Amino acid sequence: MAKEWILNSAMNRFQLNFKRNVGPTSESIRQCEPKTVDEWRTYYFSKVRSKEHIIELGKKLYIKITEVIAAEVENITEQDCIDYMLQLVIDRTFDGYITEIKTIYGQLERELGYKIEPAPDKWDRLYNVDFFIKIPNSVTEENKFIGLQIKPVNQGIQLSQIFKEKELQLKTHEKFEKEFGGKVFYIFSSKSNGKKVIMNPEVIEEIREEISRLDK
Hints:
Elements (H helix, E strand, L loop, with lengths): L1 H12 L5 H4 L2 H8 L4 H12 L2 H24 L3 H24 L2 H9 L3 E3 L2 H7 L3 E6 L6 E10 L6 H10 L1 H11 E12 L2 E4 L3 H13 L2
Parallel strand pairs: 3-4
Antiparallel strand pairs: 1-2, 2-3, 4-5
């Protein structure tokens, strides 16, 4: 397994499996329509690339692994490995977190103080809901749910189209409220200076009011 991983990684890194090296394998095997691997082998070596050419690629792969990669590995120090692990768990995790909160649902989580979760596929199909907020009721101890539809608005998607879609989805959203207790809210998003922003910020207060209603 380790050997195959090394071979595969090196082959991909140095692009030895690219079409310019091994030819159009996917197209060629469909043209060949072989019944056995021997048929395909004969066709490939006669029509696509010669066996000698593939052997040369194998030799090149060996050189890349035993000389190029080996020399690179020798230059890696213990400190390099320590620094990499620290960067992985601290810097990259933080970068991912910042990217997440820059998204619309990340902004909503900060504003509302509730976790916003992706809706199951079933909810998407039946209720036209992208995300949901779970509201544990402090009195009945029964969970209620608020649905969210996040709609990007740009030059290709006009508000009139979205409002028309909203009307068409009204019945499914009413069904969601009947089933789970909470309303479904539309959040319109757009990009401003490279960042996603909520175009109807008044919806945040409406969601807060719904949370308060469900928590009674």
